[in-house]
Write a structure and sequence with these properties.
This protein has about 70 residues and is an all-alpha fold. Helix content is about 75%, strand content about 0%. The protein has a domain of about 30 residues.
């Protein structure tokens, strides 16, 4: 009886861990995709806001596009 409970408990923990790691939690993956900017978008925004000059922008952009 104890063995069955132990197997079920381990299975439940494994299932919960798999569920969270796969991104199937409601709203979790959509939230991350909406709020996660690409590196190029960040560089474009920083240039547009005047945080970096043209030389820095072109260097960063070229660096990112060559990956």
């Amino acid at each position: 009886m104890m063995f069955i409970f132990l197997v079920l408990a381990i299975g439940a923990v494994a299932l919960i861990l798999w569920w969270f790691r796969s991104g199937n939690v409601a709203g979790r993956s959509n939230f991350l995709q909406q709020n996660e900017d690409s590196s190029l978008e960040i560089v474009n925004r920083r240039y547009a806001q005047g945080e970096i000059d043209r030389e820095q922008y072109e260097e960063m952009r070229e660096n990112l596009l060559s990956r």
